Amino acid sequence: MVYDRFQHDLLKRAEIEFRECLLENIELFVDVVRSYRNEFDNEVFPIPEREMLRIKEHLQDDFRYRQLSRLFEHRDTLVRNFITFLARPAVNECPSYNGCAQLAIHDAIAIFFQKKKQCNAPTNHVVDISVHGEMAMVAQFITDMNVLLRNEPFPTGNGPATIRCYGADEVVDDKTYDRTQLFLL
């Protein structure tokens, strides 16, 4: 029982590290998606074996890839799922699980409206989010959010909301209490 739990924890940690490896090599996977973009319209897309071999050759020197060498079928499934996610992104398939940008925004909006209700403040549908974290990660998150939102209102349970993201370091004023705080780890 203890050994099984230990094995399970090791596998989960290896999966997380392997997903990081996939993200670090995202250009390789984006090339595959671009090459086969038309074929991703099907529900099930079999990634060609020559592409899988090319990916394996590229990743084989990485320790995180080799950690799953005894579970090569599972590793191949993770690679295929990652490529499919890039071709047809869906929140429930996000490799970051709860760290997915769309889920983070839903959480930030829920906090925003809860805070407004607690203060009996009018529920203005402009949500200002102050993003905290490592500078590069914050910049990437804000860029991703701008791409996701496309300057359009975001649908919420309280009606559409306009969302504006700011890096915590770039805003210095007395309105900090009005902003929803979002911390990237």
From TrEMBL:
<dbReference type="GO" id="GO:0005829">
    <property type="term" value="C:cytosol"/>
</dbReference>
<dbReference type="GO" id="GO:0005096">
    <property type="term" value="F:GTPase activator activity"/>
</dbReference>
<protein>
    <submittedName>
        <fullName>Uncharacterized protein</fullName>
    </submittedName>
</protein>
<dbReference type="GO" id="GO:0008361">
    <property type="term" value="P:regulation of cell size"/>
</dbReference>
<dbReference type="InterPro" id="IPR036517">
    <property type="entry name" value="FF_domain_sf"/>
</dbReference>
<dbReference type="InterPro" id="IPR051978">
    <property type="entry name" value="Rho-GAP_domain"/>
</dbReference>
<dbReference type="GO" id="GO:0007266">
    <property type="term" value="P:Rho protein signal transduction"/>
</dbReference>
<dbReference type="GO" id="GO:0050770">
    <property type="term" value="P:regulation of axonogenesis"/>
</dbReference>
